[in-house]
Design goal:
This protein has 198 residues and is of the alpha/beta class. It has helices at residues 3-21, 25-46, 64-72, 145-152, and strands at 50-52, 76-82, 88-92, 99-101, 107-109, 113-114, 124-128, 131-133, 138-139, 159-162, 168-169, 183-185, 190-192. The longest helix has 22 residues, at 25-46. The radius of gyration is 16 Å and the shape is globular. Belongs to the 5-formyltetrahydrofolate cyclo-ligase family.
């Protein structure tokens, strides 16, 4: 990664992080309700029976209620667990399961840990992001976990990043290892941005 790209990513992440921290609790609650409605509709339109998602941090668009409700409806949901080697293990979501703090302070599930290969069987990937641009390029938070995961999948299903409405932007700085997403889910809409890879 060139210094210019790295600096641009750092600056944009800092701006987005600050904006997220300034949202009120009421705005976050409303966003979580909107995201759940959009994700429910997306899962139904894809006909997904097995998905991956993530447990949102307090400043992210909320996913906890969506995950719990999807499991109650019989959908198999895999949740990521960070590893020190930069890969993701997976745990099958359980609405009554415990949540702990992962390597970087993010909420992660407690349960039987499955290998990074477990995600190869899902029908839909729902991933976190700081921002996504109109071509489907995703800006993550800089640790590369989801870029590695997406880049290693032989048959990648549709991938949707969850962001706030203002985080669908014209352009994000990109590097060679950065992986595109199929679309974005915001509290008010679901937008297809790029054809998903097979």
């Amino acid at each position: 990664m060139t210094d210019g790209i790295a600096d641009a990513k750092r600056a944009l992440r800092a701006e987005l992080r600050e904006r997220r921290q300034q949202r009120s609790d009421a705005a976050r609650t409303a966003a979580a309700e909107g995201v759940k409605a959009q994700l429910d509709a997306l899962v139904a339109s894809v006909g997904a029976r097995s998905i991956s998602c993530f447990l949102s941090a307090p400043t992210e668009p909320g996913t906890h209620e969506f995950v719990a409700d999807a499991v109650r409806r019989g959908i198999r949901v895999l949740l990521p667990v960070t590893r020190a080697d930069g890969l993701l293990d997976w745990v099958v979501a359980d609405p009554d399961g415990d949540i702990t703090e992962g390597l970087f302070g993010m909420p992660e599930p407690v349960g039987e840990v499955l290998s990074p290969l477990a995600v190869n069987d899902v029908d839909l990937l729902i991933v976190p992001a700081a921002a996504v641009d109109g071509t489907g390029m995703r800006l993550g938070w800089g640790r590369g976990y989801f870029d590695k995961t997406l880049g290693s999948m032989e048959h990648c299903p549709p991938v949707y990043a969850v962001v706030f409405d203002s985080e669908l932007v014209d352009e994000v700085p990109r590097d060679l290892h950065d992986q595109p997403v199929t679309g974005v889910v915001t509290p008010t809409r679901t937008v297809v941005l790029a054809p998903h890879r097979r």
